[in-house]
Amino acid sequence: MLPFKKEEYLERVRRTKERMQSQGVEVLFATDPANMAYLTGYDGWSFYVHQLVAVSLNDDEPVWIGRPMDANGARVTTYLKNDDIFGYPDHYVQSTVHHPMDFVADIARKRGWDNKTIGVEMDAYYFTAACIDSLRKNLPNARFKDATSLANWVRVVKSKAEIRYMQQAARIMENMIKVTVAAMKPGARQCDVAAKILHAQTAGTKQYGGEYASIVPMLPTGKASTAPHLTWSDRKFRRGELTAIELAAVRNRYHVPLARSVFLGKAPARVLDLAKVQIEGLDAAIGAAKPGVTAEDVERAFRKVITRHGIEKESRIGYSTGLNYPPDWGEHTISLRAGDKTVLQENMTIHCVPALSVGNDGIETSETIQITAKGAKPFCNVPRKLFVKG
């Protein structure tokens, strides 16, 4: 069931160890489910309980630790040996008396990690204050170091196989946009349109199926179009309203997000003008993205366009994306914004989403791009325009 060859996983582990050594980390506790999947292949909706993958400089392969019933999932979805898969007793699950990291500490002592420098993902979604409290209490001789995003930065440059899955996800996305725009009409309930989106997202294409995304479909409508992270209701779409759509298609947990905006009825000049500026800025950003430039260079190209039109934007205009789990499809590494001096490299994959809001109007047009030797290449073939349905 592994989506990649074992050799690719071991190469990822090798590169992670190189980064660990450079940061003075001897053992890494990866609790981010995307990092767990990246290093071992583990794939399950089990991140609501504590689990982790441990990488030690002294061990050839990682160790998986989690809930016993999910240990079976690790046996099915990873390349790990059974001796490297540990399930903690069920009385650790959501207990006020015991904590799963108490069990992790026991494993650490048995494997000789209790006096090592252990990297932990302090700012990962599923690593809590109680986690570090337990580890510090139970491993007093260990030295703990914040290793947030250590493995994430290993993930930023994609392999050919990873790019292939994102290309497949892009084919799913192209159909999702067609389904979404066709379904949006005055009188249609938002929830019914969302249901069609979710069906298209899951059904995929005739060649390969789709998966759940890290974020649900976002459909802010009317005045809410300026609030990009709102989802759907049972309210009906109305003529004269603008909707910003942001979705993602997924293949083997690899995401390709895409945003487009739809206006129902005759679009007023102010909306058409805003869409023109936003798309002109997006084109400029994509044109600037290539190996050797920095993330802030890409943002600067966009900002030059909107400044010329008297518009300001405070937030970033994009981020690296790819393998992920809820609640986010971003990799928490590269951000297209002023001050980010990350140098772009071939096969980085970035969601460039420079949404603009003016008054009650919000326009969101985006592209997920692959950095190639010749520049940025969008994954999807979807018209880059404001969709107007008169």
What key attributes describe this structure?
390 residues, alpha/beta, Creatine Amidinohydrolase, Chain A, domain 1, Creatine Amidinohydrolase, 2 domains, five-stranded antiparallel beta sheet, 10 helices, 16 strands, globular
- Share in helix: 25-40%
Distance between the termini: 47 Å
The largest sheet is: 6 strands, mixed
Instruction: Decide which structural class fits the backbone.
Output: alpha/beta
At the fourth CATH level, what is the homologous superfamily of the largest domain?
Creatinase/methionine aminopeptidase superfamily
List the strand order in the largest sheet.
4-3-2-1-5-6
Tally of structural domains: 2
The gross shape turns out to be globular
The level 1 CATH classification of the largest domain is Alpha Beta
Q: Would you identify the CATH architecture of the largest domain?
A: Alpha-Beta Complex
CATH topological fold name of the largest domain: Creatine Amidinohydrolase
- Fraction in beta strands: 15-25%
Uncertain stretches: none
Q: Provide the succession of SSEs.
A: HEHEEHEHEHEHHHEEHHEEEEEEEE
Number of strands: 16
> Helix tally?
10
Mean pLDDT: 97
Cα-atom radius of gyration: 22 Å
Summarize the structure.
With 390 residues, the chain is an alpha/beta fold.
